[in-house]
Fold these 4 entries.
Entry 1:
Amino acid sequence: MLAVKPIELLYVANVISRHGGKSRQDLTFRLTVERRAFEKTVEVHWAGEDCVWRILPAEWICALGPERELWHAHVALFASGDHDSLPGDIRFALRCRVAGQDFWDNNQGLNHDINADSGIRLASTCPLLHVDFQPRLEPGLDFLPITVAVRPTGPPSLVYVRWSTDRWRTSTDTPCYFKRRHWDGASASNARNPNRYGNQIWISHLGVGGAFRVEYAIACETENGTIWDDNLGRNYTARRDRLKVLTLNLHCCQEDNQDAKLSVIAQAIRDLDIDIVCLQEVAEPWNNGLGQWYSNTAHIIRERVGRAYHLHQDWSHLGFDRYREGCAILSRHELIGTDSGYVSISRDPFNIHARRVVHARINVPYVGPVNIFSSHLSWINDGFREQLPRLRQWANEQHSGEVAATLLCGDFNVPAGSEGYDLATRDGNFTDQFLLAQVRQRYEEGYGPPPGPQVRPDPADGRIDFLFAHRDSRMEPVAARELFTATDYGRVSDHTGYMVEFEPR
């Protein structure tokens, strides 16, 4: 299958189901759209036997490489009392509006069509298609259902899925099965298999178990050879939710409208489903060194997220002459071990360069145990040179074979590309994950060189907040986002936040 048009139909389905004496007609459309711009409107214009044209909005499913996107539209219609009230046979065309231009797939002006209750109709460019692809593996899903539509040039002798959960180091071929009464069993429909368009439905299930990711392609063997649906040459990939890690310095209650800004942070954590949040300059009133837990800013954020998060925090010193200042870790996942300790020479709570780091080992589903350190180190000539080696030694001691990753997150008070940054990264034991994710994103979007081990930050990169990963970590950074900027949730601190998304290697 080769998609080259700005908008192009993959398949349409027209199914009438009859449950409990009630009739329902489902219309389903799947299509690809060229990635010309982010903002676009994608619609299905359709009419039933009443000749009344309607507009059905389509929804984005996922990217298909750097050039195409997968879109989907569906509507369910119910008979009010008799079968004739359903749309029946339909005609339709696809429209994409982007950058002030309209692009159509209308079958060269003739419009597409499909008969009532006929099942599925593949586009002429698709002799074989995985018709129910979803890029997300739901939590707890052990068997991935696969539905395949085939329009063979000869009788299929074998339809199968070739798949892998380990980046194709190994693979498995799993057969698909043909059921003549597929539509009856799936939808209580009278549609035939194969149907009047010569389309056949085959089904299978892949035993993915606890795998994070499954990659696959579909083959159909006939007497005329083997045809493949390999998702435009990239294979299909379905995966669990990525691990999202955010680091943010809270500015120790020095912000105007501080309470409102804590709510904005909680909203972002909730909106973006962030798994782990590393916070620095967490504050609570000094109260003669006893603190005041209900005023602790990490505690307030956790309460306002509105979801169950574990919290591990500790304080280091007196901040701004009125606060217990420290670091914290919020996690959606189970904490299987916690610790904290000074990495500075000084442990005097009245010394601003007394720096305590908090550590948690977190059990991340489908990934494994992950070590997280939330750190706030001193400036290069005020303790950083001594604190960094202690932190790295601690992290190395915690990183063992069963650990999937070890991340040093936080405010390191050294600019990207500076002497302090080089001390943290030049031996290759720890690498800048935000930078690597940015480089990967740009490359995949066609804007930059491929990622490499010697990548260096741009001289204009002003970050002093980082997520460094141990070189033996079995996770890789795949996406990055700077948060709490003027245009992304707004400023909440004198620092911005840095979020990185990870997948197992």
Entry 2:
Amino acid sequence: MKQFKLSTQLLILFSTVTFLSSLIFGYISYRNYQSVYLGLARNEVNNYVEATLSNPRETEDYLGYILITVNQVSTFEASVTSRYISPNTILIFGEDQPRLNRLIEAAYLGNFVYSDSTGTYYLAIETRQEIDSETTQYLIGVMDNTYIDSVKAATAREEVLMTFFGTFMAFAIIVLLGNMVIAIWSRNTTARIKQIQRGVKQFSNTGYENKIALDGDDEISELASAIETLRLEIRENEKTKQEMFQNVSHDLKTPISVIQSYAEAILDGTTEVEDAKVIIKQTEKLQGKVRMLLELSKIATLEVKEKLEDISIKDLINQVLSNNKHRLNHIHIQTDLDDSKFYGVREYFYTSIENLIDNATRYAKTKIVIIVKNGTLTFYNDGPAIEEKYIKDGFKPYEKGSRGQFGIGMSIVQKTFNKFGYALSVENIDQGVKFTIKPL
């Protein structure tokens, strides 16, 4: 079905369902007519038997009877002690005694319809006389299919044929009208889908500026709304990416310019060799920024191939603090760490915690408080309140903050913890800011 258009699929589906429904309805109608014919046959043979019991009547070409005397003590095969077959029944069965025995047995067992290779017969059995306590005489009415065939022949042209013709005509009209309605509906539906398709195709030409909107309250409108939300998000990401390139260029330009100017001065002999320390310092700054960019790129395309393990956050924090103690001696760091473990890769968690401490150090006035309790990690610093956009939207790479700092470090932290199933949230509390990391 995939090779057909949606409108064609709907038409095929509706026509198929309607056609199958007409066949089922026709079969049910046929079975109903068959039950009517069976009722006529039962009524005819029962009336014949009842009339013959009270007053023997002449047999018909298609009706006859059999008189049997049954000894109820013996088995059925031995119980039929005598038979009387009407002339009509002899005409029906001739001298085929085994077939006659099978018909008598079917009637005695209560079967209404008996069929064999010669045709279908309708049976009725009534007690004619109880001879003694062990012996009973029965009358079996036998009717062949001649009467029913004549009834069918008389009604087929008028009632049955017209009923079936009317049924199929009704279904044909339903198919025609239904397909017209579906064609109109599907044309409108596919037109709306194509409108969305055209809008999406224009994204590359308009830079995601063309709005996707459809009237209505159905699933297609919801799809258009979802695409519109995606468009706005992509447009915002493209804008952020452009700003990021500009900010990265600006962020790298300053140390490069300083390095260049000092290197030229050394070559010209207008500065001391000691000034090479400035070049080294700027180079270290560049290395730090490049490292952060690589970390961000690595996290964005991360396919974790390293073995995941339970990592003691307490040990990791102590290691980061020890390795960076020369940078942290001007601020008081308070810790309260239990033995909680985070599941992931040690290297990535180390970088993220180092970035969290670096961020806290940059903004804290007097202290940083690090707490690990029951699988939740929090970092508090008594610095200024964080901007609302970070609380609402999270951290975007190279989005400039209030102090001119770019959020690449915190973006790495957020993406890293998200990658391993942890959420990073931030909130302003009394006289400070608190970052919380906990399982999703």
Entry 3:
Amino acid sequence: MEDSTIKEEIWIEKYRPVKLDQVAGQPDTIERLKAYVATKNLPHLLFSGPPGVGKTASAISLTREIFGDAGWRENFTELNASDERGIEVVRNKIKNFAKTAPIGGAEFKIIFLDEADALTSDAQAALRRTMERFSKNCRFILSCNYSSKIIEPLQSRCAVYRFGRLQAGAIRDRLEFIAKDQGLTVTEEGYEALVYVAQGDMRKAVNSLQAAAFLDRRVPISREAIFRTTATANPEEIRALLETALLGNFKAAKKELDRFLNEQGLSGEDLVKQIYRVLSDLDNRDMLDLGISEKGLVELVDIIGEIDFRLSEGATEKIQLEALLAHFALLGSNGTWEN
């Protein structure tokens, strides 16, 4: 495939699943959804989980398999609640579609409402009434990141399916399939970096692979290429930064921090998240090597939480990150971690 073809395609759309069997990493949920396909019927559904784990793909694949490839579009509509989140979208768009009869002999139509947790409380209350009135000829599939933001009356009317973050193996398998289809060579470290960057999000993993493919198809995609194109710091470098700070070498740690901010262009929030992730991934051996006790780890996480909150409130990121390193350097040089 030529480079020009790569530029014209968006891989997350090209490789979006069209059948339930193609949805990766959610075997239990997919098995339950297949039961609806077998009966050609379904209740109202609520899909809950983080981004990029297959909620939209499952809704569309379920619809295609129930209605068939030829007629599913006429009996399916997709709306994003983050675009129009007020009561009017329920009264107008949703209600108008719900009250019309199914097409082509289908017994019902399907409305897929993505990011339903963005709807206001009034809109959700109106949606509840619409679901009751038109349930005979219309089924709703609601998708959200946080089911706690969906009012209880709506949740009680739906069969709830919770989608977890994808495991590394599921992401790796899909990336290998795409790389083979695109004629790409990816190193072992490159795949590990893609899984690290994705954090359980298939959409992010595929986008990261495509971004790296733009660099040079003649060269195998490496770990460095993945980190560079995704504006992600190498976790080994983040760990080295923490080790330097814990040894009390504040000036050296500050210099390394400046490199992340100025040369790599990382944001303060991204760095805080990566620092937290490196700490979270430490096993007992790592903690021993760094001289960190359980109590010390608790103190570190508490400090990171405070800095993260300050950044979200608009504090100056450079000052806050240096303050974070200063805390590490002070506590590390005082031997707090071994208490």
Entry 4:
Amino acid sequence: MAKVTHLRYVGISVPAFEQEVGFYSGIWGLKLVEKDKDIAFLAAEGSPEQYILRVRSGPDKRLDVVGFGAADRAAVDRLAEELVEAGVKLISEPARLQTPGGGYGFRFFDCDGRVVEVSSDVEPRPYREIQPEEGIPVKLSHVVLNSPDVERTKAFYEQMLGFRLSDWLLDIMCFLRCNPEHHCLAIIRGPYPSLNHVSFEMRGLDEFMRGAGRLMRRGYRLIWGPGRHGAGNNTFAYFLDPNANVCEYTTELERIYDEESYQPRVWSMIPEEVDRWGTANTDPMLYNYMSNSPDRGLWTPPPI
């Protein structure tokens, strides 16, 4: 049983701070809810989360933190105790959070040195139903992490946080879930630990295409897509943000409701399974983009 309920937010640090915030609060379609000269919090109009993306100004590009939700304070305390007993290094003890919406949580390092936060009791943000033809994100869908040791990282999230395996892409990528959604976290084999991409859920197929088309009309290059994956059955359209992080629009992610009968599958790399529609135009630099640059923040907590 998963010890976390959902993916709450992703926090990144970037050198080109103003450009990054302008991109995500502008053409990408998120809402800026709080900002000062060094940090910004961005929400999705269709999500009760206070923010789904946190952008911090820093000299190096890094993944600051991946935030997950927990059921309540007792679940947070229990998980912190279990991690300490397992020898996991805590960055902070469970306490009241000082970020928008407050809440109760703590941080720790995963096995690759990334910072993970687990929290509960964050005050929900007013949100609204995204309307037909409105091509903006409804919520955060998933985050994909590069790791040189996929098996070890997979085992960490399964054993420490209770994630369950949904599928494999050959033996290079695993898709992990903590609720019925096929994955909110995926680990892919890479040359070093880094952020692969962050994915944002759209209302439906029409809104997904409208969002992608909006970026393309404004001159943003589609590095892969539009298409539909085999694993997860979700659509994909990948772009680069101003700091060369890969961001994705997606929709129609598979849901798994029958835990007892579901069996993880192994998908191949043949075009009919990776790009089921056969429509995705793959940029020859795609692997380099998704490998990203080595994360400069491993084993180092962000200042905020």
